[in-house]
Amino acid sequence: MSPKSEHNPLDKLSLLDCSRKEDVLGAIKGGLSNCLFETNLHLTVPGLKSKTRGKVRDVYDGGKYLVLVTTDRHSAFDRVLASLPFKGQILNETSLWWFDRTIHITPNAFVFVVDKNVMIAKKCSLFSVEFVVRGYVTGSTDTSLWTIYNKGVRNYCGNALPDGLVKNQKLQKNIITPTTKPEDDDVHVTTREIIKLGLMTEAEYDEASTKALSLFQLGQHVSLEHGLILVDTKYEFGKRSDGSILLVDGALLVCSIAPML
């Protein structure tokens, strides 16, 4: 028995022209089995030394460069939950779009694309810090800004928050609530703790945080042009052997941002 119409997202296709509806439904159903969940290129491609499996990406060591395969794995709450057809392709192509449009703010690790799901990237040492940038007091997870604020916290990751804020309210200015990247759950930290732990120097943090805020501001502007409000997202940076800091992940991907309609 089919789900009731009010709970079936495919029923929204009734808004389409009937002649197109069957084609769209057929394409969707045909794609359900077309998920790239796992890759093992290091077993078949000469020159690839090893594989590192992330929640979404499979990363291969190609010597001078890295081979990044964006799979269709879908993660939330720090674990893989399912797979979505063509998600990897969308994420990969979205990354390329943003890398191209933010090069004036920061250099990035992108070199070129060899497949819709595969990107060649420069090697660099990743900072074990995620730069979570927030523009609104919102969210429902344990680490969301609204959840923390609603519990009475008024200093979060070194950011002083005034009394009287309400859910979904815009902050007076965008803030960064950085997290470390252990194998398990992310841990929120302050700038001072990041430096004390040796995760970044003060100069490195200042440069990366400035870039993160500038990237977020541009993202907010582009979102508004398309009728959206960029609520929060995260960025990751790495350092090259010459000391330059590159954007390596989080270029406003649909899996890492929270928009408001």
Automatic annotation (TrEMBL):
<feature type="domain" description="SAICAR synthetase/ADE2 N-terminal">
    <location>
        <begin position="52"/>
        <end position="249"/>
    </location>
</feature>
<dbReference type="GO" id="GO:0006189">
    <property type="term" value="P:'de novo' IMP biosynthetic process"/>
</dbReference>
<keyword id="KW-0436">Ligase</keyword>
<protein>
    <recommendedName>
        <fullName>phosphoribosylaminoimidazolesuccinocarboxamide synthase</fullName>
        <ecNumber>6.3.2.6</ecNumber>
    </recommendedName>
</protein>
<keyword id="KW-0067">ATP-binding</keyword>
<keyword id="KW-0658">Purine biosynthesis</keyword>
<dbReference type="GO" id="GO:0005524">
    <property type="term" value="F:ATP binding"/>
</dbReference>
<keyword id="KW-0547">Nucleotide-binding</keyword>
<dbReference type="GO" id="GO:0004639">
    <property type="term" value="F:phosphoribosylaminoimidazolesuccinocarboxamide synthase activity"/>
</dbReference>
<dbReference type="InterPro" id="IPR028923">
    <property type="entry name" value="SAICAR_synt/ADE2_N"/>
</dbReference>
<comment type="pathway">
    <text>Purine metabolism; IMP biosynthesis via de novo pathway; 5-amino-1-(5-phospho-D-ribosyl)imidazole-4-carboxamide from 5-amino-1-(5-phospho-D-ribosyl)imidazole-4-carboxylate: step 1/2.</text>
</comment>
<dbReference type="Pfam" id="PF01259">
    <property type="entry name" value="SAICAR_synt"/>
</dbReference>
<dbReference type="InterPro" id="IPR018236">
    <property type="entry name" value="SAICAR_synthetase_CS"/>
</dbReference>
<dbReference type="GO" id="GO:0009570">
    <property type="term" value="C:chloroplast stroma"/>
</dbReference>
